[in-house]
Model the fold of this input.
Amino acid sequence: MSYHNTVLHQMLDIFPRHQFQKVVNRHRGDYRVRRLRCWDQFVHLLYAQLSGRESMRDLVSGIRCFGSKLYHLGARTARRSTLSDANNNRSHEIYRDIFFSLSSQVSSLAPKYKLKLNRKLYILDSTFLELCLSIFPWARFRKAKGAVKLHTLLQADGLIPRFIVLTDGKKHDAPAARRMDIPAGSFLVFDKGYHDFVFYNLLASKAIRFVTRLKSNANYRVLKRRGVCKSTGVTSDHEIVFTGFYTRRKYPGKLRRIRYVDPETGKAYTFLTNNFKLAARTIANIYKARWEIELFFKCIKQNLKIKRFFGTTPNAVFTQIWIAMIAYLLASFYKFTLKTKLSIQQIFRLLKVQLFEKRSLLEVFLNDIVMPPESACINQLNLSILTGH
Done:
């Protein structure tokens, strides 16, 4: 029988230690560190994400059971207080940079999205991670609520997060979107929360074709009416220009307004785009792809530890979120390279109980189940009650 390292060891082979250490050195993460290096911290928190640990105590006691196997990972166990101090003081930007590096690597392996387009399709949206305001006073969102906001640029191919901005819950979507490095010459779809004419102009300057929904109170003038095929659900297709004084200064160009009625629900939508070549129904299908990011948010909230945090400082919370996103990228990377049909949720369930098993990753991800032959007869135990003898 061939020898295999542990499942976690094989997954971490994607991180060459010298490259990991180069990022750490750039942020001086191991400066004057005696006991717990950044690699040790990373292994502990990644184990917590993949195994579903509920608390810092649960994490430390759980990983201590595999102390001898940590040696082969180049890591060692840590005390709870030492790990807590590292989460509070080591810069979360270390793991942010590792996330961006890994995201670039995984995105190149992702399968094509089902909607065939001549440009890459990206989806922009945000979600809230609710926090207790009395424990996280720095994350004020509402009067009695706290939250961290996860602004995400998702690549439709493979559903890979390509850019993430972490802010408190009060941060508006549009200013956060301007900080994102959206690839030039791509398609971008987003909802009405990103309605901002400065943002539209920024996208147009980078030759990005966007699709969003038009606000009901927008003031515009119709320049041209285009022909439509009402059997496709498209009821109107107009070229428009906004008429507001300040609006014209922020975005002087023309746009395309498309009204579409979903044949299944009967609900009407009004789309806004700067693409004048694609069919109106294709524009509607592009906006429909925006639902993929909602499924992405649902997946990470159900399978990663981003609802309960091991620390209360901003740095500790952001560190945990970045490593959770790295865990998602790791699962996606091996899903693509091993060509498994398992969903990301199924992969996390398998990894949860096999991280320190010495099995091939191929065996784990293929998840072969041996079924009994059809001719096998399952005999049930028959109980007879003997009386009168």
Summary: Confidence is low (pLDDT under 50) at residues 375-387. The CA atoms of residues 34 and 291 lie 47 Å apart. Residues 314-337 form the longest helix (24 residues).
